[in-house]
Amino acid sequence: MQDQTQTTLDEVVTPDSLVKQHPDKFTKPQITWLLRNRHRNGLEKSGAVSMVGRKFYINTPKFTTWLLSQNS
């Protein structure tokens, strides 16, 4: 049987909300750069980012997994 983890709407945030929730970790320009380069940095492939119309949404559990998998 396949394990399916459900994401709730509370776990999906806009880039601005992410910055407001974690100002000690992210800046608006930093998140903007990550989103612009999502095709190259693996963020899109991780499933952490959705674009609806012209607006980005971030799946915070998947974003966290992607972020922690990055090597400096």
Characterise this structure:
This protein has 72 residues and is α+β, with helices and mostly antiparallel strands. The chain has one domain (12-68). The chain has helices at 15-21, 28-36, 38-41, 60-68; strands spanning 12-13, 49-52, 55-59. Strands 1-3-2 form a 3-stranded antiparallel beta sheet. The longest helix has 9 residues, at 28-36. The termini are far apart.
In short:
By secondary structure, the protein is of the alpha+beta class. The protein has helices spanning 15-21, 28-36, 38-41, 60-68, and strands at residues 12-13, 49-52, 55-59. The protein has one domain.
Helix content: 40-55%
Number of domains: 1
Main pleated-sheet profile: 3 strands, antiparallel
Major sheet strand order: 1-3-2
Low-confidence stretches: none
Structural class: alpha+beta
Report how far the terminal alpha carbons are from each other.
Answer: 36 Å
Taken in chain order, the helices and strands follow as EHHHEEH
Secondary structure tally: strands: 3
Layout of secondary structure:
Blueprint: E1 12-13, H1 15-21, H2 28-36, H3 38-41, E2 49-52, E3 55-59, H4 60-68
Antiparallel strand pairs: 1-3, 2-3
Question: Could you list some keywords that capture this structure?
Answer:
72 residues, 3 strands
